[in-house]
């Protein structure tokens, strides 16, 4: 199935497209045949491109999913942007040597979410001038600990602890501990 997802040319044939749609919807050939009121053999032959169904036969089969003819032919199975990122593909966006902010999907077009893997070295501090920007953010501490100040509230967060706040409230991250603090965070809309 993953090969079909990566090669649009193979999706030009009805059989390959039907098989992929059926699998995406979690249906066996037998279940789709039962729902559509056709034989299991008919589904199998179509998926193998050994027979070409009429429009009415295809519509009957798609009604068993349910999926319209228009959706069947226009579904895009290949994402236009990269979906997976190796650790080396995360983009460093911090200029502070004590703070690493590695962003996931920096070049993704029209993104409405920003995810970061942040590492605060011992003594790291985002600064006396507290951060403030549009949107909201949340995160979870993976290792180490961090002091998070949000407005007048302040708390030490340890592994497994999390936060969520409106980003227009002044905020600050500090690591006074002896070991690096790693956290995973998300901002919406992206602030970098």
UniProtKB/TrEMBL annotation:
Name of this protein: Transcriptional regulator with XRE-family HTH domain
Keyword Membrane: no
Single GO cellular component term: cytosol
Record domain HTH cro/C1-type: where: 18-72
Gene Ontology molecular function, alphabetical: DNA binding; DNA-binding transcription factor activity
Domain of life, source organism: Bacteria
Listed CDD domains: cupin_XRE_C, HTH_XRE
Keywords: DNA-binding
Coiled-coil region(s): none
PROSITE patterns: HTH_CROC1 (PS50943)
SMART domains, per the entry: HTH_XRE
InterPro entries: Cro/C1-type_HTH (IPR001387), Cupin_2 (IPR013096), Lambda_DNA-bd_dom_sf (IPR010982), RmlC-like_jellyroll (IPR014710), RmlC_Cupin_sf (IPR011051), TransReg_Diox_bact_type (IPR050807)
């Amino acid at each position: 199935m993953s090969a079909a997802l990566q090669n649009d040319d193979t999706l030009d044939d009805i059989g390959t497209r039907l098989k992929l749609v059926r699998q995406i919807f979690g249906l066996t050939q037998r279940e789709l045949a039962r729902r559509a009121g056709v034989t299991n053999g008919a589904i199998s032959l179509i998926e193998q491109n050994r027979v070409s169904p009429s429009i009415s036969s295809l519509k009957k089969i798609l009604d068993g999913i349910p999926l319209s003819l228009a959706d069947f032919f226009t579904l895009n199975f290949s994402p236009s942007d990269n979906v997976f990122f190796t650790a080396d593909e995360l983009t460093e966006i911090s200029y502070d040597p004590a703070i690493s902010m590695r962003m996931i999907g920096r070049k993704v077009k029209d993104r409405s979410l920003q995810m970061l893997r942040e590492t605060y070295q011992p003594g790291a501090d985002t600064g006396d001038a507290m951060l403030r920007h549009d949107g909201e953010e949340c995160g979870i501490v993976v290792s180490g600990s961090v002091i998070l100040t949000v407005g007048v509230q302040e708390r030490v967060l340890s592994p497994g602890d999390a936060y969520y706040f409106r980003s227009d409230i002044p905020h600050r991250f500090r690591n006074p501990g002896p070991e690096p603090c790693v956290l995973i965070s998300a901002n919406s809309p992206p602030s970098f």
